[in-house]
Fold:
Amino acid sequence: MEKTRIDKWLWMVRLFKTRTMANEACLAGKVKIQGNNVKPSKEVVPNLVITVTIGQLQKTIEVIGSPKNRISAGLVPDYYIDRTPQAEYDRVKMLSMRFERREHGLGRPTKRDRRQLDYLKDYLKQTEDWEDDE
Structure:
């Protein structure tokens, strides 16, 4: 396997959009090997387990190989195994569900929409309080 820098490898397997972003993630301590921060110049070897924090997601991957160039999304599984537990994906999904979302192009909610949202929030809050009492 060809020796590859970790920032370049993260970019080649499409974990980061640009190599600069991968480099900055390494410098910011968002890329770890065995719990230790990694410099962007660290070389990648097979069977290496890397933990990468992307936004709220803490992704754990195992290196299988190193591509020569940036690869297409369909070829990504040939170069690493995603060891991230499903619970982590569920946690990130729950975090994103806590915020109100409105489809793009619908505009601001009307008074009626706002009242319905407030009613729903109050109702859900009461049911959460009721479940906590049990």
About this structure: Strands lie at 4-5, 31-33, 36-37, 43-44, 49-54, 57-63, 80-82. The first strand starts at residue 4 and ends at 5. The two ends are 57 Å apart (CA to CA). The longest helix spans residues 111-133.
